[in-house]
Amino acid sequence: MHLKVLLMEDNNYLEHLQGIKGILEERTKFKALSGLSGVFAGIWALAGAYVANDIIYNAPQIIYTDVKEYDVSSPDLRSLLLVSCITLVGAVSTIILFSYRNARRSNTRFWSRAAAKLVLNFSIPMAMGGVFVFALLYRHDFGLIAPSCLVFYGLAVVNASHYTFSDVRALGIALLITGSIALFVPGWGLYLWALGFGVLHIIYGAIMYFKYEK
Asked: pLDDT 10s digit of each residue in the chain, 214 long?
C-alpha cells in the first residue's frame, strides 16, 4: 500500500513537471508554425521565379548591358521588383494565414511572447539584408542580389529557429549553403534562388506537416 502511494505521488510529480515544461515552452517557443505555410510559400517562390525568368529572358539587357549605360528606371527592372514584392507579400500572407489556422486548431495563442521574439529575431537579419540588396541594386551589382537574398534569409531563419521548432534550423542552414554556392556560379542565381525559396521550402513544409500536423 505504501509503495502504491509513492508511485501515485511520483506520477503526480511527473505530471506537474510536464505541465511546467509545457507552460515554459509555450512562453519561449512558437508552436503554431504550420508546415503547409512552408509548402505554399515555396509555391509562391517558384511562381515568382518563373515570371522573373520570363522577364529576364525577354530583356537580357538587365544582366548584360554595360552598367554605365543602364537605366535603373527601366520598365523591365520595375517589373522584376513588382514580381518580387508580390511574391514576398503572398508568401508572408500565406505563412500568417496557415499559422493562425494551426493555432486555432491546437487551441494555442497565435500571438504570444514567443511569437514576438521569433518575429524580432527574424526581422533583424532580414532588415539588414534588405538594406544590403538595395545597395547592390543602387550599385548595379545585379549578379549578387539572388545569393544575398538567400544568405540573409538563411541567417534570419537560423536566428529565428531558437524560438520555434528546431527543424527550422536545418532549413536555414540549407538556405545558407545554397546562397553560398550561388555566390560562386554567376548566371545561376535565379535558379538557385528558386531552389532555395521554392523547392527547399516545399520539402521542409511537407516534412513539418507530416511530422507535427498529420
From this structure: 554 544 454 455 455 445 444 544 555 577 888 889 999 999 999 999 999 888 877 765 544 444 434 444 566 777 888 898 999 999 999 988 988 888 888 787 888 888 889 999 999 999 999 999 999 888 888 889 999 999 999 999 999 998 888 889 999 999 999 999 999 998 898 999 999 999 999 999 999 988 887 7
Helix/strand/coil percent split, the chain, to 5: 80, 0, 20
Please tell me the pTM assigned to this model. Answer: 0.80
Any idea where the domains of the chain sit in the sequence?
A: 1-30, 31-213
CB 80 within 8 A of CB 59: no
Rounded Cα distance between 16 and 8, Å, is 12
CA–CA gap between residue 93 and residue 42 (Å, rounded) = 13
